[in-house]
Write a structure and sequence with these properties.
- With 321 residues, the protein is an alpha/beta fold.
- The chain is built from 15 helices and 7 strands.
- It folds into 2 domains: 167 residues, P-loop containing nucleotide triphosphate hydrolases (Rossmann fold); 59 residues, no CATH class.
- Strands 3-2-4-1-5-6-7 form a 7-stranded parallel β-sheet, with helices on both faces.
- Helix 1 packs across helix 2, helix 2 packs antiparallel against helix 7 and helix 14 packs antiparallel against helix 15.
- Bound molecules: guanosine-5'-triphosphate and magnesium ion.
- The site of guanosine-5'-triphosphate has 16 residues, from helix 4.
Amino acid sequence: MVEPLLEKLFSRDKVGLAKLITLIENDDPVSDEIIHRIYPEMKNTCRIGVTGPPGVGKSTLLEKIIMELRKKGKTVSVVVVDPSSPFTGGAILGDRIRMSKVYLDEGVFIRSMASRGSLGGIADKTKSVCDLLDAFGFDYIFIETVGVGQVEIDIMDASHITVVVLAPESGNGIQALKAGLMEIGDIFVVNKGDRDGADQLVSLIRYTLELKQDKSQQEPMVIKTVATTREGVDELVNAVPNFCKSLKETGKFYVQKETWVRKEISRLVEREIVGSYWKDNTKRVILDKCVKDVINGKITPFEAQKILLEKMSETTEDTEK
Ligand SMILES: Nc1nc2c(ncn2[C@@H]2O[C@H](COP(=O)(O)OP(=O)(O)OP(=O)(O)O)[C@@H](O)[C@H]2O)c(=O)[nH]1
Ligand SMILES: [Mg+2]
């Protein structure tokens, strides 16, 4: 069933791509097969994360960036992840409106993802969706995510470059400092540069970065923009490919890839071990008993763990026979 969709993806058909993303998003059992098939087709495209508090102008900025990249003949994809929303419908509508000038462009693909009520796995799924976009062959892959929490920081793990967008709005600077955004940003954008306080925010960011400056790392850039009038957007549009280029030249791009691949292999091994462990129903019966025993004070969770892990070696021996 998945084969015709993969054929479509490889022939750069966006309908096929969208359907494959839905399967990944829904944790469909064919997800493994999809990732397995697309891995050899990936082109090592730079993935650019764009994050920041709600309403700072991330989508408006992205729309302007996309328009510039399209003028240069580049194809662009965007995954918009809203971890706080369990519904994709509303998000899709919102992004269609916010990026309306580029939504219907043949060389642009915009897809919204929501957490569907469970935050677990959203970062992994974002990564898999980026793998699909990479295999499809877009020149640029952007990930926009809303908010400043740990989940957004985890989602940014799927990108090579992180653009942190802030605006001179109440508490934005302080919020960013607190939430760890200063640690993850490669490029800081102070958008809404037409508003009071923009220059002060630029200074605050520069000052904070100076304090943190690790001489072995590339110094983060700070760019002031007015997304609505395109002011500063050219600087940003030029900064992104330059950054990608330097990541590849210094080899950091491939170190990042190594980390991802290592994590992916470990995740698959762990999933298999855990899955096969609990397949045997007698272990669930033992678990039920252990839970009761812990609650009644007969054993501690550590003793329960030992009892259950002894059963694991029994399974291994059984299969070896
Ligand atoms: N004054 C001013 N308004 C801007 C600027 N950039 C964006 N806006 C406005 O700010 C509002 C929010 O912009 P979005 O692009 O939707 O912001 P966002 O960060 O993507 O929002 P979420 O995805 O909801 O977090 C819109 O009304 C934009 O028109 C700017 O540079 N200056
Ligand atoms: Mg947005």
